[in-house]
Amino acid sequence: MRPRVSVQHSALRNGNFSLRIHPVRREDAGLYEAQVAYNMESHSCQVELGVITVTLSPPSPVVENEPLLLSCNSSHWANLLETRWFHNGRLVPTSRTFCSLHGTLSIPRPAMSDAGSWRCQLRYSNNEIVSAMYNLKILGFDGPTNPVVYAAAGSAAD
């Protein structure tokens, strides 16, 4: 897993034997065990790392009015009961504009207003809730819907 894994050697003397993984990948999910021996004592602990991913299809860049699909997947073992999507912190209701099914969100005609922070929230049969964020960027025209620009002859127009 190198060079994505590090241990803070200066923190070991204080009893902190944390492992840092950056960036986390889907294949990093699983059980991790730490074992430390010091002055005839040994300690160990186990931590399970769950990984949740949000992917975009087709991949970036997204062009305004071209359909897109956001998918939310988790390494969690329990049955998925519910998926909720949030855009810029607000719950997104299912509609013609946003269709949610089995961890995916379909946006048939994305607009510039759909750009921003998207969060999927997954609720499982063991009542655990996990979530992940995705920052959606959309290429398009962000201006008046019926633009008319007047410019004097001989001048520049943008």
Gist of the model:
By secondary structure, this protein is an all-beta fold.
Choose one word for the global shape.
Answer: elongated
> CATH class of the largest domain, please?
Mainly Beta
Largest sheet: 4 strands, antiparallel
Helix content: under 10%
Average residue pLDDT: 89
Structure class: mainly beta
Number of strands: 14
CATH topology annotation of the largest domain? Immunoglobulin-like
Unreliable stretches (pLDDT < 50, length at least 5) are: none
Strand order of the largest sheet: 5-7-11-10
Taken in chain order, the helices and strands follow as EHEEEEEEEEEEEEE
Write the CATH architecture name of the largest domain: Sandwich
Radius of gyration: 23 Å
Question: In angstroms, what separates the terminal alpha carbons?
Answer: 50 Å
Helix count, DSSP H or I runs of 4 or more residues: 1
* Corresponding CATH superfamily of the largest domain: Immunoglobulins
* Count of folded domains: 2
Describe the protein's topology.
Blueprint: E1 5-7, H1 9-12, E2 19-21, E3 30-38, E4 41-49, E5 52-57, E6 62-63, E7 68-74, E8 80-87, E9 90-91, E10 99-101, E11 104-107, E12 116-124, E13 129-136, E14 138-139
Parallel strand pairs: 6-14
Antiparallel strand pairs: 1-2, 3-4, 5-7, 7-11, 8-9, 8-12, 10-11, 12-13
How would you describe the overall organization of this protein?
- InterPro entries: Ig-like_dom (IPR007110), Ig-like_dom_sf (IPR036179), Ig-like_fold (IPR013783).
- One of its GO terms (cellular component) is extracellular region.
- It is a single-pass type I membrane protein.
- The chain has one helix and 14 strands, in the order βαβββββββββββββ.
- By secondary structure, it is an all-beta fold.
- Strands 5-7-11-10 form a four-stranded antiparallel sheet, with no helix packed on it.
- The chain folds into two domains: 45 residues, no CATH class; 88 residues, Sandwich (Immunoglobulin-like).
- 9% of the residues are buried.
- The mean pLDDT is 89.
